[in-house]
Amino acid sequence: MGGDDRGRWRANLQGEIDGAALYRAMAQLEPSPELREIYATLAVAEERHADFWRVKLNDAGVTDAPARAGWRTRVLIALARRFGTGFIVPTVVGHEQSDSHRYASQPEAVAAGMSREERSHARLFTAIGASSTAGLGGAAVTRFEGRHRAGGNALRAAVLGANDGLVSNASLVMGVAGAELAGRSILVTGLAGLLAGSLSMALGEWLSVQSARELFARQIAIEAGELETFPEEEAAELALIYQSKGLPAERAQEVAQRLIADRGSALDTLAREELGVDPEELGGSAWEAAITSFLLFSAGAIVPVAPFFLAEGATAVVWSVALSVVALFGIGAGITIITGTSALVSGARQVVFGLAAATITFGVGRLFGAVLGG
To answer: Are residues 97 and 31 in the same domain?
Structure first.
């Protein structure tokens, strides 16, 4: 046993503490009884794993073992409290999938059965498997699966939306600053860029979501017609869907027949399973998506412009660059809530890319300013 083992055990303990805290919070916040039970069961498993690594560290004489959830987990819990557990489920799915083989090369974890349990957790979060659906009805399976597909990863979209606004407007502001325009001209240009970019993003998002809603509505109408005309074929299709999730053939057929008996439930299930959409939401509100996109882009785009409200010339440019660097690092670090990678590395990378774009536009602006100025 050496320092490498202790470092590995410490990292394992932190991961299990994070998982236990997150699943415990999700169990408390989840309105569905079936999902509450699933999350609570996962929390108990993670706490048991944490105890295993805690004992290992204690026996090795480590006195400063991790004792609380990390900042990423605390942010996810805060987001779940604000927006609901469904908001963070896609992120949790990604974490579970990436961690599913974490213990495969650790002999003590394999011997303790933790490697197998982590793989089971990953399967549970991507599809309800045979070992975890024996006591769940078809409606519960559908509700769990629907949350994984509906709406994509909202957290990722929020971070990237703000990043688009920040990088594009910082580049624009640096470009006109390079051309040595007056401070008020830079301010007006920056605000115009903010408004133009935000409106463009909002319109694009509205068209995207509205088109998807219209497509989903048409597909659901087709499913309704097929359900009315060929109910037995639709029942067989549902049975195959549940068999692919791991349900035994007889159980899958039983669930399918029960759903088909209620045409409303059957159509709802087919829409969720085949199309991956909640028929009541049809992929979400186009106006809500547009407004959200507008606000997120604006939140990023205002950062490089803000100093020009209060100052001009080199002072405003320096403050614009400084605020943009801080915001770029924050966005880069924020995206690691999803990826689980190093916040320092991701934040620094984002700063480098953002500054590179701003430097290029500043140089181009300087060149054109010199040419046009004679």
So the answer is: yes
- Please tell me whether residues 88 and 192 are part of one structural domain: no
For 72, the domain range is 3-126
Query: Do residues 159 and 113 both lie within one domain?
Result: no
Same structural domain for residues 90 and 25? yes
> pLDDT per residue over 108-130, tens digit each?
888 888 877 777 777 666 643 23
- Number of independent structural domains in the chain: 2
84 and 191 in a single domain? The answer is no
Vertex 12 angle, CA 10 and 15, to 5°: 110
Residue 337, in any domain of the structure: yes
Q: What is d(CA 1, CA 10) in angstroms, rounded to the nearest whole number? A: 13
| Judgement on whether residues 192 and 337 belong to the same structural domain of the protein | yes
**Helix spans in the chain (H):** 3-29, 33-59, 71-83, 85-99, 107-111, 114-126, 130-133, 138-149, 154-178, 183-229, 231-244, 249-260, 263-270, 286-305, 313-334, 336-339, 343-372
Single pTM value for the model:
0.61
Res 21: pLDDT:
94
Helices 114-126 and 33-59 cross at an angle (nearest 10°) of: 150
Q: What percent of the chain has pLDDT over 90?
A: 25
Nearest to 358 by CA among 176, 223, 189: 176
Domain boundary among 126, 141, 176: 126
Phi, psi dihedrals of residue 103, rounded to the nearest 5°: -95, 0
Contact 216, 278 (CB under 8 A): no
Distance CA 160, CA 357 (A): 16
For residues 62-67, average pLDDT: 87
What tokens does 160 get?
């990237």
Q: Say if residues 92 and 30 touch (Cβ distance below 8 Å).
A: no
Q: Are 352 and 325 within 8 A, CB to CB?
A: no
- The tokens of 324 are what? 């943009």
